[in-house]
Amino acid sequence: MLSITDPISFQKQTLLWREQGQTIGFVPTMGYLHEGHLSLIKAAREKTDKVVVSIFVNPTQFAPHEDLASYPRDEEKDLSLVEKLDGDLVFLPSPDSMYDSGSATWVEVPELARYLCAVSRPIHFRGVCTVVSKLFHLANPHYAFFGEKDWQQLAIIRRMTKDLMFPIEIIGCPIVRENDGLAKSSRNVNLTETERVESVHIHKALELASDLVQSGNTNVEVILQKARDYIEQHIPSGEIDYLEAVDPDKITPVSHIEQNVLFAVAVKFSVVRLIDNQCVRL
Ligand code: AMP
What we know:
By secondary structure, the protein is an alpha/beta fold. The chain has nine helices and nine strands. Adenosine monophosphate binds at residues 29-30, 36-37, 39-40, 146-147, 149-150, 173, 175-176, 183-186.
């Protein structure tokens, strides 16, 4: 398995593979890999000749008050996990090499970044789109794999890829959860013991909302209020950042449930903010 830190050397390698007729599957991550990331790598392994993983904690998607400094890292373990899954290349750039002092270009999809995470993290998706565009130019993939855990991000990346005509197929992969239902996240390690116990109710609140829809409720306000009450009662250590029902593609609020709906939630704990979602298909 190759491990490369220099962006141009990485680009040369992926271009060489393309010249040789190999298909490339790309999995961008921020590292501290868990089963969620590994499911994307496995999906890439099944579909493509060369599996490329990037590990980069992208500073431009964090606001100054957010958890960039405490974001967990373990490069050595990550490399061995990718190697075990028969990955071909891990790209581990430094922030300076990705954003040299002359870097002045941003990529944004404002239409899909008006609600959910965009409200409390207004610069987040601009950072994500910019770094993913750069990574796409370096990795030259045929397919790129993203998790539905970050549903809004996936919707934004799909639109960006289409609008900027990247010749890349975006593949969304289902959320991988702990046995108790908590969505796997690198950030879970920074929860206190009490927060970890309570965090299981994030998913349960989404299931409650989903069950209400399945049993015929169509009033969004009533459903959301019940789910909010549930979280407030069962997660006293956390604070709801948002709990919304949105159109799964447009990421705009729905007032009445008639079609597919995405319930999405973010809960802030002492250090960590966790997100989760559930798409109900009608
Ligand atoms: P991150 O390292 O958190 O930026 O995530 C890298 C990729 O892994 C993104 O496409 C995420 O959506 C995906 N991912 C993270 N956690 C999960 C999970 N629990 N299940 C599925 N995909 C995930």
